Amino acid sequence: AKMRKGLEEQSELELKRFKLEMLAKRQQQREQEQLERQQQQQLLLEKEKEEEEERLRIEALEEEEKLRIEAIEKEEKAKEEQRLETLKNDQLEEQKMANMMEEEDLISVKQEIGEATSETSTVANDDDEVNQSN
Length: 134
Known about the structure:
With 134 residues, this protein is mainly alpha-helical. Helices cover 99% and strands 0% of the residues. It has one helix and no strands. It starts with a helix and ends with a helix. The model has no long low-confidence stretch (mean pLDDT 90).
């Protein structure tokens, strides 16, 4: 009887030990699953963070490119305006030179007319003198 009772107690102890081991295994499995879920969630968060950083980096590059293009266009516009201003100034200078040359030509023509008129008067006076002598 004692042996039987000892065997029953031993069986109960083994059963309790088995149940505890099973509980411990289930608890460990739940903890492992929870850890895996946390790791997956952490990976997902890191991936989302990386994607957001990449998106922001791309936006910054696009904005930088846009500003660079605007600066180039502004510079080209300023160069074109300067070129047109220079061209306008050159044309004005050429017009001034042409006007001055025309003015000099007019003065020269007037002088020639004056000289011709005076020669004509001299010739006419000479003719008058010749006519009076005759």
